[in-house]
Design brief:
Number of domains: 1
Order of helices and strands: HEEEHEHEHEHEHHEHEHHEH
CATH class: Alpha Beta
Enzyme class: lyase
Strand content: 15-25%
Structural class: alpha/beta
Keywords: Heme biosynthesis, Lyase, Magnesium, Metal-binding, Porphyrin biosynthesis, Zinc
Protein name: Delta-aminolevulinic acid dehydratase
Bound molecules: zinc ion
Active site: 199 (schiff-base intermediate with substrate), 252 (schiff-base intermediate with substrate)
Low-confidence stretches: none
Mean pLDDT: 95
Binding site for Mg(2+): 237
CATH topology: TIM Barrel
Largest sheet: 8 strands, parallel, barrel
Length: 326
Amino acid sequence: MHPTDRPRRLRTDGVRPLVSETSLSASDLVAPVFVDATTDERVPIETMPGHERVPVDEAVARVEEIRDTGVEAVIVFGIPESKDPNGTRAYAEDGVVQRALRRITGETDAYAIGDVCLCEYTDHGHCGVIEESAETDPTLTVKNDETLDLLAETAVSQADAGADMVAPSAMTDGQVRAIREALDDAGHEDVALMSYAVKYESAFYGPFRDAADGAPAFGDRRHYQMDPANRREALREARIDAEEGADVLMVKPGLPYLDIVGDLRREFDHPIAAYNVSGEYAMLHAAAEKGWLDLEATAHESLLSLKRAGADLIVTYFAEDLAGRL
Ligand SMILES: [Zn+2]
């Protein structure tokens, strides 16, 4: 008895690369950069080994380190010098991200993306303007329409500072249209928009909240971020953002939501991005530290799975470490 089909014939060293369906390269990756207005020196982020918050003066050096590995794109997050209820430092002309973007785009050839949200800048840690009663009201919600103007202002201020692309992550209904219109009105019709179209209320964001100091002071984000139980709703969210003018549609987190990446790939012709989030990074690091997993191999396999599921680009904390070895 001989098997009728022998897939193993195509697994020898000589032919494996010829029939490989998916590849990963440095040009697929976007590296997050944390710029911190409260420090004069680089501060390691404990829950994300290998990552640091850097002062504005170090932003260019940080980006050059990333570019030296072959990664050309960065997404900039900010830790402001002060916070208030309306997150005013998110859209200040001399805000930490605006100052960093000016330097990065003026002094390097990096493709610079600005993350557009308010949670790192509000004293309550939520992604927009909140109800007055929020602190005592368990049905707390961010005021949707009041937040739109602030997000649009943030995006325009980042574009004014040189951002090549803005990436709204607040899950505010209508944010893509509001930002697109504001950018166009300000003469930034060439600035691209990558929407965090499908962002789940996930427990995998923990380490990032240490990194960006953006944990909510009370409550959680389940009234505006998506329920992890929902799959069809992801297509609805993505469709809205596509219609409102998003150039790239993102799914966040990545690994626990590969089905969603696949769904968006099939449904849309837009480039699809996946955010391989801080928890996905931290868990591999923690296991590797214990000697339980091979860090490089599991990181590579993780990112490859996001590509295989349909992502064109991946925002990942592994960008630098992997790029040099691809
Ligand atoms: Zn936010």
